[in-house]
Amino acid sequence: GRIVAVDYQIQRAKGPEPFEWVTEQNVVSYTYDEAGRLISATNAVGEREVYRYDEQHVILERGLAGGASFFWAWERAGKAARCVRHWASFSQMDTRYAWDDNGRVTLHNADGSQEVYVHDQRARLVQRIDPDGATHFKSYDDKGRLTVEQDPLGAVTAYQYDEAGRLVALFPGDDEPTTYEHDNGFVRVVRRGEAVWKYERNDQGDVTRRTDPDGHITDYSYNRYGQLVGVWYPDHSCHRLVWNERGQLLEEQLPNGGIKRYRYDELGRQVAREDEHGALTGYQWDSVGRLIRVVLPGGAEREYSYNPYGKITAERDERGHVTRYEYADGLHLISRRINADGTQVKYRYDNVRLLLTEIENEVGETYTLDYHPNGLIQQETGFDGQRTAYAYDLNGNLQEKTEHGDDGSQLVTRYERDHAGRLVRKTLPDGSTVDYAYDRQGNLLSVDDGHWALAYEYDRQNRL
């Protein structure tokens, strides 16, 4: 009763006989051990993942097709099992979990930073403490619906629902709330301030008419399969779409009169695209749907090859130049780019979050990046040796930028923000300031540097 393979099949005619299903290719195959546990999955080009379990059937190892492996250690058994360590075949990842019996778990990362997650008795996240101490809160009603979120600086977002559990109002702190009206389970009216959007739908829930806050109407029509076949815009122009029996888009008739056309192979992959000017582009794919060749309208070609993560390992451009990419430690992250002229660029990721930490360019110059424990950039040193440091508030918004000179000087730019994280004042290194103001929709209203003030106005749809 276990699935051992998934095949892609199509219906083919066999002479005068009825259509029959024919396997076009194997998509994935699975193998199991004697206990019925999945131990491997292999795709159409032979790339294979493997899995290993303990005697309680809890996963211990996952080996990716690209070479990286992930490991787990557990305490307790059965439904009470919980992870106490999660690490990998590469050195950056090694996290330990310390649990209490009140829904609190503390993560100890390889760099010494900690994260805390607290869940209620119904396994809902109610508190998260980031490595920098930023604390997030969530509250729920008795039906499990999120009702309140509080960010680390105290700003509150509230959610309101009707008896059916549908969202009817969103209150983003001091900003303008958004309300929703429903009909037959679908949103019918959206209001924010003076702006009102209205929607009409068919029995399947597809939008057939949309009226914007200025009263402009856009109509939509569908075929019997629910596919969009026509859009009529407020200026009376029309966009039409033509589909085949397999649900593939064959043609677009654009509002300006142009026509785009598309063709597909037996596996449903697009193999040709003709734009509205008649230019034809061709595409070729491998067995797992990765693009391996593009034939441009003029006949020039580009070719690509990949690793098991679907990352490009080589690309040949239309002039025949080949650029190659290498990936270290069995990861999906590029470690070296070898240019067509033989020069190379190297990359390092010495960070527990696998963030980029160093770039070495073609002439041996380095660009380095250091991070705060929460993953935000703490300092960057450019190829020219110029060093810039960054500090953030507890919501992760930039608060201060310090540019260090070769002579030991410092140029500091400071940023002040409102409850929503919007920039309200920027203080430049010379002490001058730039002030910013917003409306309750979050639109920028003015910028004033003390010399030339800029003002902005918006329509009811928040368009400048």
UniProtKB/TrEMBL annotation:
Domain Teneurin-like YD-shell: 160-327
Domain of life of the organism encoding this protein: Bacteria
Keywords: Repeat
Database matches in InterPro entries: RHS_repeat (IPR031325), T6SS_VgrG/RHS (IPR050708), TEN-like_YD-shell (IPR056823), YD (IPR006530)
UniProt cross-references to Pfam families, sorted A to Z: RHS_repeat, TEN_YD-shell
Family annotation (NCBIfam families): YD_repeat_2x
Annotated protein name in UniProt: RHS repeat protein
Organism: Pseudomonas extremaustralis
